[in-house]
Structures are given as structure tokens and as C-alpha cells.
Specification:
By secondary structure, this protein is an alpha/beta fold. It has a single domain (12-336), classed as 3-Layer(aba) Sandwich (Rossmann fold). It has helices at 21-34, 48-57, 74-80, 96-101, 103-123, 143-158, 185-195, 213-226, 242-249, 291-294, 318-325; strands at residues 12-16, 40-45, 64-68, 86-89, 128-134, 169-175, 177-178, 199-201, 207-211, 232-235, 238-241, 255-257, 279-281, 285-288, 308-309. Strands 3-2-1-4-5-6-10-14-13-15 form a ten-stranded mixed β-sheet, with helices on both faces. A three-stranded mixed β-sheet has the order 7-9-11. The longest helix has 21 residues, at 103-123. It is globular, with a radius of gyration of 20 Å. The chain starts with 11 loop residues before the first strand and ends in a 12-residue tail after the last helix. Bound molecules: NADP nicotinamide-adenine-dinucleotide phosphate. NADP nicotinamide-adenine-dinucleotide phosphate (NAP) binds next to helix 1, strand 2, helix 5, strand 5 and strand 7.
């Protein structure tokens, strides 16, 4: 996929989760690469302190505007999305363990909040909307994964909502673990290394897909340049044993194996068994093109006609990926940054 250099030309962009790892990274990427061509960027946060800090750091960028609010509140979204062209929806509650103890909080933010986003986008005739999802939404074992799966389905179905009919395009970017994100394994390992403390792992065989924030930001812009509505875009990522990651960042770490956490999987999957039937690939990514979209806008009427259909025999779990990668360079050094 390619980046269209004019993708943000004269556009107003709205970012939810802009104070978080991925939201702030895409914000930085857009400012660094497209600031001259954009019309305006609006950034949403519930937290006035984090929002004030973000704006302080961006005080020289007069086209960036703070919006204080919550995606659980449809009325403020309706107001903030007036005149917006592109939405990057990155806000979510994402801690797997909290999801098991407070599932309805995740339902309110990840499912109902996402529904508010789609409704406010349709009402405001936004052109393109991207949601950041997770491999944990694939055959989910956790409340977090299940709520993100529902959020994905809400996004896909919004394309064919009777009020919309592909006027506002909704697509999804599904990611593995993002290096350097708040509360992630990478952050924990760095903290433990500094304190010279041992590291607890819940299973020594655990594997994960991973990607850097820079790669994510670039990928999101490519997706916004390419999307035709309804797709789930999945970048081709590296998979590694979690222990190997730890050893790369903190070679002398003492590792203690504890018990599995509620909702946690040992291996992740990028694409479900069911989605394999409707999946295409290019050099840098996979695209799932759901049946409910295919029925109305067949894939051969889009850019996908030039993409390869994936073989039904492929498997997409992190453990199988590692087996396939044997001997290939995984560039684990990127985790050290
Ligand atoms: N990090 C990863 O490894 C990873 C991997 C795959 C997918 N994802 C997905 O990527 C997205 C961003 O993840 P991240 O790592 O950047 O998370 P993060 O650092 O925790 O940021 C999430 C942001 O969401 C905002 N938020 C939460 N609830 C909200 C609400 N009700 N209304 C408005 N804003 C709300 C928070 O902003 P305020 O506190 O300022 O309101 C927070 O900054 C999530 O959708 C997640 O599911 C992340």
C-alpha cells in the first residue's frame, strides 16, 4: 500500500485517544509529515491535565485544538465532529485484567463509545473513519478482546447503515502488541531492568506479534489513503516468544514463572479461521473483507481485485509464525529503543 501525499490536504482530522500511545504517535506523525497541508486537528481526552500537557507541547502548532470529553457522551461527539473529514478512533480501555473484573466498563467505552463515534460520524457526514483494533479481538478469550470484536463489527456494519450506505467509510486497523505502549511488557521490562529486579512471566512459552509506533503511524496513513470501507487491515508483523523479547531488552533478567492471568491467551491470532475465507494479501499487509460488505460492494470492484486471496491452508497464530520465521531476521533490536 502507498501513502497518498494529499490524503490530509485541507482536511480536518479528529483523533480519539490522542493522549495515549498510539493516538499521540499518529498525531506526531501527521504533524511532522502533513502539517502544512492539513486544515485542522482536533484531539479528544477525558483528562484535562493530560490534554493541557499535550497542548503545552504543541503550543507552536496553531492548527491543533483540544476537545475535552468522553466517547461515552454522544452529544459532545456530535458537536466536536461538526466539519470533520477524517476520524482516527484510538480511545479504548485495554487492560486485559481489569476487563475481567469490570467488564461493563469496557462495554461502555469500547462498545457503546464506538457506537457513539459511528453515529456522530454518520450524522456529521465525515468521509473516512479508522478504528484501531487488536489481535485480541480474534477468537477472543478476554472481555477486552470480546468488546473490541463487537467494536469491529459495529464499524463494519456502519458502512451499510441505512443512514449511510458507504457515504462515510469505516475501516479497521488490527494490530499486535505495540512496542513502547503504556503498561506494555516492553515498559515493564525496562522498569525492572532499571530497578535490577526479576521479571514475572505468566507462561514461558507465551508468544506475541509486535510492531513499533512508527510502523503503526505509517500504516494508518497508508490505510486512510487506500480504504474503501468495511475492511480490516492487518500489517504483516513479527512474532516472538515473550521471553526472547525480555532477554533482548534485559539480558541478565531473572525470570519467574507465575500463573496465567484471567482472560490471557498463550498465543495470539491475527486472523480467525472464519475470516481466512475472505482475506486478501499484499506485500505489507492482510485485508479481511467481510461478507456483508462483499454482498453490496464486491471486492473485484475495489483495489482488492489486484490483491492475492490468501490460501485456506495458512495459519495465523503467533506460534506458527515463529516456526515459519526460523532463520529469518526478526530485528528484535527495535525493542531496545
Ligand atoms: N498498545 C497496544 O499494544 C495495542 C495493540 C493493539 C491495539 N491497540 C488499540 O489501540 C488503541 C490505543 O491503544 P494505546 O496503547 O494507545 O492505549 P492508551 O495509551 O491506554 O490510550 C488510550 C486512550 O484512550 C483514551 N480513552 C479511554 N477511555 C476513553 C473515553 N471513554 N473517552 C475518551 N477517551 C478515552 C484515554 O485518553 P484520556 O485518558 O486522556 O481520556 C487514553 O489516552 C486502543 O483502541 C487499543 O485497543 C493497542
Amino acid at each position: 500500500m502507498l501513502i497518498n501525499e494529499k490524503v490530509f490536504e485541507n482536511k480536518t482530522i479528529f483523533i480519539t485517544g490522542a493522549t495515549g500511545t498510539i493516538g499521540s504517535s499518529i498525531l506526531k506523525y501527521i504533524i511532522e509529515n502533513f502539517y502544512n497541508t492539513i486544515k485542522e486537528i482536533r484531539v479528544l481526552s477525558r483528562d484535562e491535565y493530560k490534554l493541557a500537557k499535550l497542548m503545552e507541547n504543541l503550543k507552536n502548532y496553531k492548527k491543533v485544538f483540544p476537545k475535552l470529553g468522553d466517547i461515552r457522551d454522544l452529544n459532545s461527539l456530535r458537536q466536536y465532529l461538526s466539519g470533520v473529514d477524517i476520524v482516527i478512533h484510538s480511545a479504548a480501555l485495554k487492560r486485559v485484567e481489569f476487563g475481567e473484573y469490570y467488564p461493563y466498563e469496557l462495554v461502555k467505552t469500547n462498545i457503546e463509545g464506538t457506537k457513539n463515534i459511528t453515529d456522530a460520524c454518520i450524522e456529521n457526514k465525515v468521509s473516512k473513519v479508522i478504528m484501531i483494533s487488536t489481535d485480541k479481538a480474534v477468537e477472543p478469550s478476554s472481555t477486552y478482546g470480546a468488546t473490541k470484536l463487537c467494536a469491529e463489527r459495529i464499524f463494519i456494519a456502519s458502512n451499510i447503515d441505512e443512514r449511510n450506505k458507504f457515504s462515510t467509510l469505516f475501516s479497521i486497523v488490527r494490530l499486535g502488541n505495540v512496542i513502547g505502549s503504556r503498561g506494555s511488557i516492553f515498559e515493564i521490562v525496562k522498569e525492572k531492568k532499571q530497578a535490577n529486579e526479576p521479571i514475572n512471566v505468566t507462561n514461558k512459552d507465551m508468544t506475541r506479534f509486535w510492531i513499533t509506533t512508527e510502523e503503526v503511524s505509517r500504516f494508518i496513513v497508508k490505510v486512510i489513503s487506500t480504504m474503501s470501507g468495511g475492511e480490516i487491515f492487518i500489517p504483516k508483523m513479527t512474532a516472538t516468544k515473550v521471553i526472547e523479547l525480555i532477554k533482548t531488552i534485559y539480558p541478565s533478567a531473572k525470570i519467574i514463572e507465575t500463573k496465567p492471568r484471567p482472560g490471557e491467551k498463550i498465543h495470539e491470532k491475527l486472523i480467525s479461521e472464519y475470516e481466512k475465507n475472505v482475506c486478501f494479501e499484499s506485500e505489507d499487509c492482510f485485508v479481511v473483507y467481510p461478507e456483508i460488505i462483499e454482498e453490496i460492494k464486491p471486492s473485484e470492484t475495489t483495489y482488492l481485485k489486484n490483491w492475492k486471496k490468501v490460501s485456506n491452508t495458512l495459519t495465523f497464530s503467533s506460534i506458527d509464525y515463529i516456526a515459519k520465521q526460523k532463520g529469518k531476521k526478526t530485528n528484535l533490536q527495535k525493542c531496545k529503543k
